[in-house]
Every structure is written in C-alpha cells, then in structure tokens.
Amino acid sequence: MAHLKRYQLTLRNHGLRDYDVEKVKYVFESSSPRDAIRRVSKVYSLCERNNIRISYYAKQFLEALAISAETDLHEVK
Asked: Which single residue of 3, 12, 16, 25 has CA 20 to 30 Å from 58?
C-alpha cells in the first residue's frame, strides 16, 4: 500500500456537510501539499473579498488541511 500524505487523508476524511463542501470545494482538487496551502489561502481570500461567510466546521477543515500540508512539506525522511 502506498504511503498517503497527511493532506490527502484530511481531504478524504473531511466530515463536512454538503453545504460546507460547496463553500470549500476548490481545495479538493489539490495535487500537492504546496498546492493545498495555496488553495486554502485562495478560498479564504475569495470569501473575504466576496463577503461570503464560512461555517466554523469549514474553517476548522481548512486549518486542518493547511496544517497537514505544512507537515508534509517539512517532514524529515
């Protein structure tokens, strides 16, 4: 079995409601940890710019994804 990155596990096991998934669906297309961090920042900036509210659970998911991706980037092997 191939080693899954932490950010991929976070994306797979998100536990968000459909409403929340619609707000943050852009991050589910991430292809790498660096891309995931970029997409999280983009979702935050778009929501702020367009005055769109993100639920508490969606924010928690975005933070968890960013932390997982950051850990994958700095993992020592």
From this structure: 3
For tokens 């960013």, the residue is 66
Taking the model in full, what pTM does it have?
0.88
pLDDT score, position 1: 35
Q: For the chain, which residues make up each domain, given as ranges? A: 6-73
d(CA 3, CA 40): 23
- Above 70 in pLDDT, residue 2? no
pLDDT band at 75 (very low <50, low <70, confident <90, very high): confident
In angstroms, the CA 51 to CA 32 distance is 28
